[in-house]
Design brief:
The chain is an alpha+beta fold and 98 residues long. The protein is 29% helix and 23% strand. β2 and β3 form a beta hairpin.
Length: 98
């Protein structure tokens, strides 16, 4: 569960470019993210990953359908992981009035 301000904060904290919102996910984690473990992942050359706090930002050049990283992230989180595409995160921010 997220507060009303968290989608806006997630947008503001995004360190990656979003060339195509349909190929970009934010993974919201309910627990601590093992950033050391995630740094050892070797995503495909078309996938980019960045961790900011309890959020993992992922870009998938071939599209979300072929993404490998989101499924692997849950193994590096003490808790649950929920992903939302970038358009949904922007919509949630708008609904919250940010």
């Amino acid at each position: 569960m997220r507060t009303a301000g968290q989608p806006g904060a997630a947008v503001d904290a995004n360190p990656l470019p979003v060339p195509d919102p349909a190929k970009f996910l934010v993974l919201f984690c309910s627990g601590r993210v093992d950033t050391d473990g995630l740094s050892e992942l070797t995503p495909s050359p078309r996938e980019r990953v960045a961790v900011v706090g309890d959020q993992v930002y992922t870009h998938h050049g071939q599209g979300i359908r072929y993404a490998r990283v989101p499924d692997l992230v849950s193994g590096y989180v003490d808790g649950t992981v929920t992903d939302r595409n970038w358009r949904t995160v922007l919509r949630l921010r708008g609904m919250a009035g940010d």
